[in-house]
Amino acid sequence: MSERPPISPRSPRAALEPEQLPPPPKRSDHARNPLVIIGNAIITFIVVVMIGAGGLYVYGKNKLEAPGPLAQDKVVNIPQRAGLDDIAQILKREGVIEDGWLVFAGGVMALRARTELKPGEYLFQKSASLRDVIGTIVEGKVVQHAVTIPEGLTSEQIVERLSDNPIFTGSIREIPREGTLLPETYKFPRGTPREQVIHRLQQAQKRVLSEIWERRSQDLPIKTPEQLVTLASLVEKETGKPDERTRVAAVFVNRLQKKMRLQSDPTIIYGLVGGKGTLGRPIKRSEITQPSPYNTYVIDGLPPGPIANPGRASLEAAANPARTRDLYFVADGSGGHAFSDNYEVHQKNVGKLRAQEKQLQNDTVEPPEETPPAAAAPATEPAADPAASAAPAGAPKAGKNGTQKRRARNATPNGATE
What DSSP assignment string belongs to 139-208? Predict the structure, then answer.
């Protein structure tokens, strides 16, 4: 009999444990294939990238859509030739965005707007998101500045205004012809060239003049659109009251039809100062008959060209004047005019104006201080010649656009000055 090895007593737990661990399974030849290893690495990399891209997408989306730091609407200027980094710095400095170049550039790239960013002055809304900010710049919705050109200015005065306005750039090579610019309120973005502004005013004038000329009264004693502008410029300078324009136009039209001189004071001023527009003082008696191509107290008919740039309303009034027989008008002391169709009534209206002016002068003159009798002027002192400083009949009054106008038209029915 063979001997058996002695049996060592074991605990139940030890009896359940294997005496020797089994060897690990051998990797198959397929698993050890380099292509499989590379493929597994690629798949792992793709999964990691996808997870990262998903996280980046969520982060970027939140950055694009999150409300921005602006506490109120703000205008920011993006200069010409500003690069991506420059724009990001400007926006951060102005408080439009709170992150730096990297986040802004990421947003631009995500929205495929790298080549679509436009310079200009932009209004960013309160709490505008990064998407809104980029979209505003891409769409080029620049701020439009309202620029008002008042009626009745000369071309030289308009050019001076445009030259002084800082939102425009460049210079104006030459002053446009009188009457070729349309006074109106326009909107321009900052940086608009001044020559472009002039061109727009000229195009607007051509369009409006063409429309009004087509609707003109057929019995007007004028033959060309240019003459209509000239007549409208006289109306523009004579009254600033909208309800008087057609009636003032009627006075001039009636005088033209009767071969009477127009005798418009603003034409005297234009003949003296040209495009500067204002005389800065009352018209002298000697200047009323001073020869000038524009002085309608001396010449017959219309002046050779406009004396200002009339607005749409004055053009309309000149093209369709009121149906009246009025030949005269004079200031009524309340900002308007008294109209009449005969010289006698006109003279009475002039008398009323003179009485009002005299009363006003008496009301405004302070009473003289009491002085001793010895202070009286000597009897040998010559008295002032009242005719030397007296204003002509139809005394100058401050009129529209600061011009000095002789509102009383003292022409006799045949057109000669009294």
Answer: HT-BPEEEEE--TT--HHHHHHHHHH-TTEES--SSPPPTT-S---EEEEETTEEHHHHHHHHHHHHHHH
Enclosing H/E stretch for 406: strand 404-406
Strand partners, 328: 340
| Residue 70 tokens, joined | 């602006």
Compute the C-alpha angle 178/183/185, nearest 5°. Answer: 155
**410, 350 contact by CB (below 8 A):** yes
Token couple for 343: 């010289």
* Helix or strand (DSSP H, E) at 387: helix 386-389
Q: Helices (DSSP H) in 258-384: which residue ranges?
A: 265-273, 285-288, 312-319, 343-364
Q: Do 98 and 66 touch, CB atoms closer than 8 A?
A: no
Give the C-alpha distances (Å, rounded to integers) separating 172 from 150, 180, 188, 316, 374: 19, 15, 16, 29, 65
Specify the DSSP class assigned to residue 268: H
pLDDT in tens, the chain (418 residues): 556 666 666 666 666 666 666 676 666 655 556 766 676 667 777 766 666 555 555 555 666 788 989 999 999 999 988 989 999 999 999 999 988 788 888 888 888 888 899 999 999 999 999 999 999 999 988 999 999 999 999 999 999 999 999 999 999 999 999 999 999 999 999 999 999 999 999 999 999 999 999 999 999 999 999 999 999 999 999 998 999 999 999 999 999 999 999 999 999 999 999 999 889 999 999 999 999 999 999 999 999 999 999 999 999 999 999 999 999 999 988 889 999 999 999 999 999 989 888 887 776 655 554 443 333 333 333 333 322 322 333 333 334 543 334 444 444 443 433 3
